[in-house]
Amino acid sequence: MGYNRGMFIDSHCHINFPELAARMPEVLAQMAHNKVTHALCVSVDLPDFPQVLALAHQYPHIYASVGVHPDYEDTPEPSVEQLVELANDPKIIAIGETGLDYFRLQGDLEWQRERFRTHIRASRQCRKPLIIHTRSASEDTLRIMREEGAGTDAGGVAGVMHCFTESLEVARAAIEMGFYISFSGIVTFKSAKELQAVALELPLERILIETDAPYLAPVPYRGKMNEPGFVAHVGEYIAKLKGVPVEQVAQQTTANFFQLFQLQP
Fold this sequence. Notes:
- This protein is α/β, with parallel strands linked by helices.
- It has helices spanning 18-21, 24-33, 49-58, 80-86, 110-126, 138-148, 168-176, 193-201, 231-242, 246-260; strands at residues 8-13, 36-41, 62-66, 92-101, 130-135, 159-161, 179-183, 207-209.
- The chain has a single domain, classed as TIM Barrel (Alpha-Beta Barrel), CATH 3.20.20.140.
- Strands 1-2-3-4-5-6-7-8 form an 8-stranded parallel beta sheet.
- Helix 4 packs across helix 5 (110-126) and helix 9 packs across helix 10.
């Protein structure tokens, strides 16, 4: 079904991943059908970054980021200079995704913390927002953000806590630093009661919506391959949760996206 109730933006997806790249015409058609006007294709490592950038250059409504995900251990390590240089392209609107993940990886993760610091320094230098991934590591994530001056409160730039699954306290701490909180399809899952309570508490002015495609498809597509067009279901769910018109969620999350990433609507 099409959505005639406002326009949505997928603030975080990986449409360069092979399973989506192979279906690009279909993926873009589904976006248009569901009134998803833009998508941000997020970089996870440097070897695949050229594909991410190529997509952004090929399609006017696709943007890109540059960064190395904390889950990728055996991958070229970025330097501040390299990230800043790559971010110089006008279609690169963010640094990341970066952050800490203590859920998937064990052992001495100092390299992960150092990589995170590198991204924050690059963000401060090129004045482009950070896309932060944090899982089972919120305390260290917030500590390093503060130490490195991430966020507008420390003279850095704003950013987003993407695919948010942490507590209300963590969300509020990030918002105080000038960050936005992005909800993925997880918020639509029956089991996500705590996360739904967080979404209910947060002001719409600080919320973004995303798919994290090809992962985490929202209800009613749970368990299937996710794609940017499905972000409309996340927006619908948040509207229902908050008891506000879906147009309001569409309008505000879209405005938030353009404001955060310093873009002209």
